[in-house]
Amino acid sequence: MDVETTQLAPKQYKSGLKPVWCPGCGDFGVLSSITRALSVLGLRREEVAVISGIGCSSRIPAYLDVYGFHAVHGRALPLATGLKIARPDLTVLVAGGDGDGFSIGGNHFMHACRRNTDLTYIVMDNQVYGMTKGQASPTTDPDWEAGKLTPGGTGINPFQPLVIALASGANFIARCSSSDPNGTAQTIVEAIQHPGFSFVQILSPCVTFRPEQRQWKNLVHPAPVEPTDDPARAARRLLTDDAYFTGVLYLGQRAPNEPVPKQSRDGIAALEEEFKVAST
Amino acid sequence: MHRPDDKGLIIGSTDELLAHAMAIEMEAAERYEELADQMEMHNNPEVAELFSKLAEIEGKHIQQVRDLGGDDELSLKTRWKYGWAEPGVSEAPDYEDVHYLMQPYHAVSLALRAERRAVSFFVEVGEQSEDEEVVAMAARLAQDERNHVTLLEEWLNILPEPDEDWADDPDPPAEG
C-alpha cells in the first residue's frame, strides 16, 4: 500500500468494489459515514484497519480501501483486540450486525466492553438476520411476526445493546441513524478519538426483510441531554430510552487497556522449543 | 456558521456560503454516483443511467459554484461541520428512498425533492443573514436551485407515471 501524504476525500477511502447490498439498505449510509470520518481525521489508508464478522453489514471491509479482515461469525472483536494490542499505532474499527455482535458474538461484546481496549465498534442494527433471509435477531421486538422461524413473534424481550455496553464497561456509548450520514460521521470521529472501547449502535434499516424500517428516519430524534461521564446518570437515562434517541450517551474516563506484548520469538525453532515434551 | 436555538442558520461570509454550496453539490454528485452503482448491481440499467446523468449534472453545478469563487479545499476540510449536514437539509436523496425496481419517474421525483430542499436552504440563509453580500449570494444560489427544479419538473412531465404494481416482483428476495 502506498503511503499517503495529503488529506484524502471520503470517496478515496472506498475500494471501488460496488456493494451488493439491496438498494435502500442503511449500510450504504454507514459506509459513507465511515469514509467521511476517516477523511475528517486525516488518517492515511495504511493507518486504519476494519475488522468484521459475518452478515450483510460485515461485508464492509471489502468496500473500503484500508486494511481489512472479514472474520469468523461473531469473532470480530477478539481478532480486533489482538490486532490493536500487536499494532497499537493502527486505528482499528470493528464492524458488523446485531446478530453477529449480540448473539453469536454476544459474549465477546461484553468482554470487549469490560477489557476496554482502544477500539471503535460499529454495529449496524436492523433487528433481523438479513443475509439468511429474515430471521429474528437478538434486538428484534417480541411481537415481530414476519419471521418464518417465529411466526407468532419471538415473545422474548429484545437485547438492549446500550444497557449491556454501559453495564459491561464500554468507555464511549452512542446511538446514530444511517439516515443521517453526516451526524453519524461526526459521532464516529468522536468515538475514534475517545480512548478505550467505543460502542456505536447505528439504526440501519433492512428494507427487504423489515420494509417498515424505512420509517426509522422519521422516528429518530436527538437525545435532549448532553453526554455524561457518570454511569449512574447514563443508566437512568436509558430507563427512559424509547429506542430512537440518537447522540452520545456516555463518555467514560476509564484508562484503556494497553498491555505490552512480549518480545516476539526469534523463530519457529524457539516456538518448538517452548512446546517440547520433556523426556522422562 | 452556527444555528442558535430558534434563530435559524446564520452564515457569516460569502466564502463560507460558497463552501456550503460546494459541499452540498459534492454530496449530491457522490450520492447519485452511489445510487447509479446500486441500480447497476441490481440490473436496473435504465435508472442506473439516469442516476449517472444526475451525477454528471451535479458535477456541472460544482463547477458553477467553483466559478463563483467556491474553494474545493475549504469545502473538503470543513464540509461535515456545516449546518446543511442535518438530516432533511442536504440536496442528496436519502438512501432509504430507493428501490431496486424503481423507475425513471421515481428517480426524477427524488431528485426534484432534493433540489427543492436546496432552494429552501438558500432561502433560509438569505433570510437569516444581515450581511448584504451573503444575502445577494444566497439569492443567486437559490435562483440557480429554482432553475434546477424547473428543469426537473419539465423532465418529470414527459416521463410515464409508474403503474400501481411497479414494486411487484414475481420472484421477490423476501420469499424463499
Task: Describe the protein in words.
The complex is a heterodimer of chains A (280) and B (176). With 280 residues, chain A is of the alpha/beta class. Chain A has one domain: Rossmann fold. Chain A is built from 9 helices and 10 strands. Chain A has helices at 27-41, 76-86, 98-104, 106-115, 161-168, 181-193, 216-219, 231-239, 268-274; strands at 48-52, 67-70, 91-97, 120-125, 128-129, 135-136, 172-177, 198-203, 221-222, 245-251. In chain A, helix 8 links the parallel strand 9 and strand 10. In chain A, helix 3 crosses helix 4. The radius of gyration of chain A is 19 Å and the shape is globular. The model of chain A has no long low-confidence stretch (mean pLDDT 94). By secondary structure, chain B is an all-alpha fold. In chain B, 62% of the residues lie in helices and 0% in strands. Chain B has 5 helices and no strands. Chain B has helices at 14-41, 45-67, 72-78, 104-128, 132-157. In chain B, helix 4 packs antiparallel against helix 5 (132-157). Chain B is elongated, with a radius of gyration of 18 Å. The termini of chain B are far apart. In chain B, 40% of the residues are buried. At the A-B interface, helix 1 and helix 6 of A face helix 1 of B.
The percent range for helix content of chain B is 55-70%
**Sequence of secondary-structure elements of chain A:** HEEHEHHEEEHEHEHEHEH
Strand pairing plus helix content of chain A: what structural class? alpha/beta
Assigned CATH architecture of chain B: Up-down Bundle
Q: Which structural class do the helices and strands of chain B define?
A: mainly alpha
CATH topology of chain B: Ferritin
Helicity of chain A, as a percent range:
25-40%
**Major sheet summary line of chain B:** none
Task: Tell me what portion of residues of chain B adopts beta-strand conformation.
Answer: under 5%
Q: Please state roughly what percent of the residues of chain A sit in beta strands, choosing from under 5%, 5-15%, 15-25%, 25-35%, 35-45% or over 45%.
A: 15-25%
Provide the CATH top-level class of chain B: Mainly Alpha
CATH superfamily of chain B: Ferritin, core subunit, four-helix bundle
The interface involving the most residues is between: A-B, 37 and 28 residues
Write the CATH architecture name of chain A: 3-Layer(aba) Sandwich
CATH topology of chain A: Rossmann fold
Write the CATH homologous superfamily of chain A.
Answer: Thiamin diphosphate (ThDP)-binding fold, Pyr/PP domains
Which regions of chain A contain 5 or more consecutive residues with pLDDT less than 50? none
Distance between the termini of chain B: 51 Å
Shape field of chain B: elongated
Q: Number of folding domains of chain B?
A: 1
- Mean pLDDT of chain B, nearest integer? 86
